[in-house]
Amino acid sequence: MKRRFLYAGLALLLASGLAAGHLACWYLPRYHSGQPRPGYLPAQLLASDAFSFAVWMPYPHQNLGLLGRAAAGGGATGELAPALARLAGLPQPSLPRFGAFEVPPATEIAFAADEGGERFALVAEVYPVVAAFAKLAGRLAGNAWLRGGVLDVDGRRVEVAWHGRVWTVASPGLPSLDAAPAAAGAPSLAIAEVRRAVAPLPAGRFDLTRRGGDLVLASAGAGAARRDLEELDPAALGLFLLVATGPGKTLEKPTQAMAFFLTDEREKAGTSTSYELPGMASVYETGGRRWTLPGEGLLDLAGRQVRQREIGPFSVAALDGESFQRVQELMPRLAPIARPRARDQLVWGLWLDLEGGFGEVRRIADVLAEIPIAPRRHQERWRDAAAVLAPAARSFSRLTVVVTDEPEVLRLRLVGRSR
Questions:
Q1: Which of 57, 137, 152, 229 could form a disulfide with 190 if both were Cys (CB 3.0 to 4.6 A apart)?
Q2: More confident residue, 297 or 115
């Protein structure tokens, strides 16, 4: 009898361990890469040219669950998606939940739309057991979102249907995907297909992969892109943001950049809100156009001039003396941007220290909230920017986006905090 109890206890422990392992592997938030499976609807939607762009993702409930968990860490779980939509100028998402799940537990999912967002389609290869329960629950509750049917979502007609365990949500008239070629490639966390370039971003296919603690979104051929641009670290330069544009392969446009310095540490350590603006400076090709510095118009009205100085083939400009001195000291370290024109030229770049950038954006949002005459739209945009940066700043140290020409590639990199 004791032996039977022992065996039963061991069997129960083994079953519990297997159940916990199954739950962790297939349901709990974690990075889970995969490949589009040829012949399946998500892969066919990704490859279809019926829409302007498409995004494919394996195990969306796990990969997107990481984003939700990061947002929850700052107490703003429900604010991230609406804030991102407002910043992008898109309608705020308000799709119903998939039963008990925010996103359907699926082996893969794909979403495609045209440029205006009027035509769209979502296809999910739902787990078999989840699909069966969703259909049953939808029939019992009369829920067209789960069982299939026609719904009105924010005044727009949406058609929901099941094809075996494939769940589709689309605007009226989902095109046939049978003839679409199969997508292939290395395992990814997500794949995007952009049919038409939207400057400065090129068209093509972009793969999101995990490299150690980093996340990298890169276009085909990005492996040979300039790493000297990617390795620029704004925090090491005393910056929280650096933005630059270059001439590209035509060599017609001048190279120019804008640097934003962190607010003085003494101000950041204070108990009251600092009304000090971040230090700013520009770098540009001598004789070429440069971006106007924020506040430069007020300086002109006061009869004062922007500080400027030539340093070789480039010039620097700033409003205040400290920023003017600091940007001159940084010029040797900005060589990847201010380099002679050549092949593999910079088209557009952004380098953001996420912790410092989040602190500055949140500080400016707090300042605007205390100014009664500040336009409401400006207050909301800075609050939304802080809401978007918060989860990224908790998991990553910096964001780098580099677009180069010849080859025309994009490489976006989120550097993990472990580095």
A1: 57
A2: 115
